[in-house]
Amino acid sequence: VNGITLTLKLEELQLAEQSGSSDLDTKSNISINKTSTIAKIQIDLRGKRVDEALRETEKHLDSALVSGMNFVHILHGKGTGALMEAIHEFLSEQSFVTNFHFANEDQGGTGITVVEL
Fold first, then answer.
1. At 93, which helix (H) or strand (E)?
2. pLDDT for the residue numbered 19
3. Which domain holds residue 45?
4. Which residue stretches of the chain have pLDDT < 50?
5. Mean pLDDT of the residues in the chain
6. Which terminus of the chain has fewer Cβ atoms in its 10 Å neighbourhood, N or C?
7. Closest C-alpha to 42, from 109, 113, 117, 93
8. What percent of the chain has pLDDT over 90?
9. What is the CA 37 to chain-centroid distance, rounded?
């Protein structure tokens, strides 16, 4: 719903109670279990197509934000540069990304982008 995906176990679902009222209850009670959403610092996108890599990047950044991380590493490799360019363009459009840059040479250089959240 509105770009939010929920993954639940079958036993966590229950039938909604039917109400005799025609008014809809629009209140929601949402809680996030951070232990189930802990993100890894690095995601490896080498060999992926741009569209697939961007979807995975978005999911990875969402998990990192929910986990309270301040930065992540995106391993896109060097190759032709098409994947890196698409990821950098995507990152530049995200309001929650405060900065991004290549890793130090001894940590992967231009094959890895460090994203500050």
1. none
2. 56
3. 37-116
4. 1-2, 34-37
5. 84
6. N
7. 113
8. 63
9. 10
- Residue 73's DSSP bridge partners are 42, 114
> Does a structural domain hold residue 42?
yes
* Residue 86: per-residue pLDDT: 98
Is the model's pTM score more than 0.85?
A: no
For residues 24-51, one letter each, b for 16 or more C-beta atoms within 10 angstroms of the residue's C-beta and e for the rest, the string is eeeeeeeeeeeeeeebeeebebeebeee
H or E stretch covering 102: strand 99-102
- Residues 88/100, Cβ–Cβ less than 8 Å: yes
15: number of CA atoms within 13 Å, CB side? 3
Specify if 1 maps to a domain. no
Beta bridge partners of 114: 73, 101
Number of domains in the chain: 1
102: nearest Cα among 73, 79, 82, 80? 73
pLDDT at 37: 47
Check if the beta carbon of residue 115 is closer than 8 Å to that of residue 87.
no
Q: What is the CATH number of the domain that holds 95?
A: 3.30.1370.110
Residue at 50 is within a domain:
yes
Residue type, position 56, single letter = E
